[in-house]
């Protein structure tokens, strides 16, 4: 069968070198370009993190202002894109719309020469600036509401909330606690080294494909409930549990090996200790719920109790299954008033910069087309039956 290493799920195969993000799963460490996520979440913001992930260093004040200014100049999408949206059914999942629309950006912003860093930079600005616009348009379209244009005097998170919630009848009133929490959600999802979607983007990019099309491949990979779709699945699960009294029943189902059900928002392939993003998210969650007076929200009570039970249960302790980032982000997003179907869309718009940073890192150096091998387990050669 040749000299291949058989590694289903890529548990022990490094497919690339990277300088962007470091994870130590045993010790719950996540560093972006060397900076701990906790410090970045405390003192930085999403746009600065975007700069850091791609460029490798924190910006000076002047570089930061220039970066923000350029992003704000690219927030509009081509007007023809509205026709593209109109082709979708109104009840389509916003992730399905996003996947198609982001892929279509490759037709609107095609560039033959991505070997040049300047051209790649333009793609980066377009992606960072347009993803919130596209995400909000996905939501507005499914709601049957008119699209809301970006307001470039607002900051990144505020602008997203404005495009999501303002209507021709009135502008959304920005609550700074919510805008800050939104920015934190963007930051905590920005990059996570070679996860399924980032690896997909690298693989697609390794063929020389257009970067916008590569981002669409990342969106497709992110959609599943084992990856980015988990935040949506957490809320669906909490609603299904419905009452604290039913938690034991769901925990028993999760432990039953005959039952495919898993506790959504628990466990991680790499973190075998607490997910450091979950720690920050948990605190943000408490702040948002307090600011909105939602501490007694019944779903939140179920979530807190579930967290407590799972953290004390031998099954979860033995397998090192802790609440992950999606467990808390779903609760925050719900409190902000974001519909569940938009949760993964928000993850995708936040992660786009991570996907871009990895694509950019790969194409800036010598790279080969990604081509995994297989262990063939089918028939050996056999003859087609003669009549
Ligand atoms: N509930 C119950 N049991 C679980 C869970 C769970 N959420 N997660 C893992 N297990 C068990 C699993 O059944 C297995 O048990 P055993 O050893 O007895 O067979 C053991 O834990 C190891 O699981 P695994 O499937 O080998 O672990 P993995 O690294 O392949 O999967 C995971 C990681 C995140 C896909 C998985 O933990 C899971 O499905 N979690 C729920 C979905 C979720 O929250 N996903 C979001 C991940 S974080 C955001 C992101 O990076 O996208």
TrEMBL record:
<dbReference type="InterPro" id="IPR016143">
    <property type="entry name" value="Citrate_synth-like_sm_a-sub"/>
</dbReference>
<dbReference type="GO" id="GO:0036440">
    <property type="term" value="F:citrate synthase activity"/>
</dbReference>
<dbReference type="InterPro" id="IPR024176">
    <property type="entry name" value="Citrate_synthase_bac-typ"/>
</dbReference>
<keyword id="KW-0472">Membrane</keyword>
<comment type="pathway">
    <text>Carbohydrate metabolism; tricarboxylic acid cycle; isocitrate from oxaloacetate: step 1/2.</text>
</comment>
<keyword id="KW-0816">Tricarboxylic acid cycle</keyword>
<keyword id="KW-1133">Transmembrane helix</keyword>
<protein>
    <recommendedName>
        <fullName>Citrate synthase</fullName>
    </recommendedName>
</protein>
<keyword id="KW-0812">Transmembrane</keyword>
<dbReference type="InterPro" id="IPR010953">
    <property type="entry name" value="Citrate_synthase_typ-I"/>
</dbReference>
<dbReference type="InterPro" id="IPR036969">
    <property type="entry name" value="Citrate_synthase_sf"/>
</dbReference>
<dbReference type="InterPro" id="IPR002020">
    <property type="entry name" value="Citrate_synthase"/>
</dbReference>
<keyword id="KW-0808">Transferase</keyword>
<dbReference type="InterPro" id="IPR019810">
    <property type="entry name" value="Citrate_synthase_AS"/>
</dbReference>
<dbReference type="Pfam" id="PF00285">
    <property type="entry name" value="Citrate_synt"/>
</dbReference>
<keyword id="KW-0012">Acyltransferase</keyword>
<comment type="similarity">
    <text>Belongs to the citrate synthase family.</text>
</comment>
<feature type="transmembrane region" description="Helical">
    <location>
        <begin position="327"/>
        <end position="349"/>
    </location>
</feature>
<dbReference type="InterPro" id="IPR016142">
    <property type="entry name" value="Citrate_synth-like_lrg_a-sub"/>
</dbReference>
């Amino acid at each position: 069968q040749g000299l291949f290493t058989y590694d289903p799920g890529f548990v022990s195969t490094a497919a690339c070198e990277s300088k962007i993000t470091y994870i130590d799963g045993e010790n719950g460490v996540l560093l972006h370009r060397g900076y701990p996520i906790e410090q970045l979440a405390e003192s930085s913001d999403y746009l600065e993190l975007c700069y850091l992930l791609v460029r490798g260093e924190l910006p000076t004040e002047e570089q930061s202002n220039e970066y923000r200014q350029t992003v704000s100049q690219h927030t509009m999408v081509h007007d023809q894109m509205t026709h593209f949206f109109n082709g979708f059914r109104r009840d389509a999942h916003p992730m399905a719309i996003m996947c198609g629309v982001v892929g279509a950006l490759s037709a609107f912003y095609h560039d033959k020469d991505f070997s040049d860093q300047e051209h790649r930079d333009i793609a980066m600005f377009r992606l960072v600036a347009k993803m919130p616009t596209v995400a909000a348009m996905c939501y507005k379209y499914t709601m049957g509401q008119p699209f809301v244009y970006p307001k470039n005097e607002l900051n990144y998170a505020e602008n997203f909330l404005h495009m999501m919630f303002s209507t021709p009848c009135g502008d959304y009133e920005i609550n700074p606690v919510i805008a800050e929490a939104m920015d934190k959600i963007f930051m905590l999802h920005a990059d996570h080294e070679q996860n399924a979607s980032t690896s997909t983007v690298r693989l697609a990019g390794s063929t020389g494909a257009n970067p916008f099309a590569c981002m669409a491949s990342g969106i497709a990979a992110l959609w599943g409930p084992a990856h980015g779709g988990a935040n949506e699945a957490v809320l669906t699960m909490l609603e299904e549990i419905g009452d604290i009294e039913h938690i034991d029943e769901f925990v028993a189902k999760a432990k039953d090996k005959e039952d495919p059900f898993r506790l959504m928002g628990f466990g991680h392939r790499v973190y075998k200790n607490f997910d450091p993003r979950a720690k920050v998210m948990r605190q943000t969650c408490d702040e948002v719920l307090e600011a909105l007076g939602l501490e007694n929200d019944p779903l939140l009570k179920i979530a807190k109790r579930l967290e407590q039970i799972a953290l004390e249960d031998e099954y979860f302790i033995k397998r090192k299954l802790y609440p992950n980032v999606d467990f808390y982000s779903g609760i925050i997003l719900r409190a902000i008033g974001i519909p569940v179907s938009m949760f993964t869309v928000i993850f995708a718009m936040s992660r786009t910069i991570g996907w871009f940073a990895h694509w950019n890192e790969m194409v800036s150096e010598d790279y080969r087309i990604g081509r995994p091998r297989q262990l063939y387990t089918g028939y050996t050669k056999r003859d087609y039956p003669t009549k």
